[in-house]
């Protein structure tokens, strides 16, 4: 039986880059937008566009949004343009909400302690950091599983699976990367000539 990772409690953060500058971002699937603390404007080199909205957090009064910054955001292997609303945030530097998750096809995976990005051009898994006490973490390097780590696991006889999520579109032909083709060729004896059409009997 496979051992489960230890249960984590607290807020999950991932290391990201905004305009080329490293910062820890809290993941919040309950936040409709992405936010950045106003104290980070200069550090991250943000250019603000006017915004007329206000924001109300739990147990606080309504506060005007100071502006919106369109930034280059890098999370793991994913890079894209993202809007951040600039607001006074006492406890956090950056909050990535539903806006980011929809844009990057991302999902928080508490069981695996990280963030899975299913974007077809840059699918990756970014290791998260949980914090209970300190809400503004020291920077921690993001983690992707490297080929070296997989090789080490194979050497130690650990059961290893290689999986990739691919969206199949009937009108789009997509070539398999050379590395994947080599793996498929190497282990062709493992795969049946045709996949089963139904589940095996119990």
From TrEMBL:
It comes from the Eukaryota. Pfam families: gag-asp_proteas. InterPro entries: Peptidase_aspartic_dom_sf. PANTHER family: ASPARTYL PROTEASE DDI-RELATED, DNA DAMAGE-INDUCIBLE PROTEIN 1-LIKE. This is Aspartic peptidase DDI1-type domain-containing protein. The lineage of its organism: Eukaryota, Viridiplantae, Streptophyta, Embryophyta, Tracheophyta.
């Amino acid at each position: 039986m496979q051992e489960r990772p230890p249960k984590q409690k607290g807020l999950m953060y991932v290391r990201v880059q905004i305009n080329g500058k490293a910062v820890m971002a809290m993941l919040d699937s309950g936040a409709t937008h992405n936010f950045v603390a106003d104290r980070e404007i200069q550090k991250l080199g943000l250019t603000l566009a006017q915004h007329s909205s206000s924001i109300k957090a739990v147990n606080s009064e309504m506060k005007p949004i100071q502006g919106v910054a369109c930034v280059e955001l890098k999370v793991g292997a994913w890079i894209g343009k993202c809007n951040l609303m600039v607001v006074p945030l006492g406890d956090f530097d950056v909050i990535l909400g539903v806006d980011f998750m929809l844009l990057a096809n991302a999902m928080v995976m508490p069981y695996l302690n990280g963030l899975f990005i299913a974007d077809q051009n840059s699918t990756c898994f970014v290791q998260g950091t949980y914090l209970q006490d300190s809400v503004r973490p020291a920077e921690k390097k993001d983690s992707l599983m490297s080929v070296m780590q997989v090789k080490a696991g194979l050497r130690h006889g650990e059961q290893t699976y290689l999986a990739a999520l691919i969206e199949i579109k009937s009108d789009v032909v997509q070539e398999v990367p050379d590395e994947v083709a080599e793996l498929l060729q190497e282990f062709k004896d493992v795969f049946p000539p045709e996949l089963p059409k139904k589940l095996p009997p119990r």
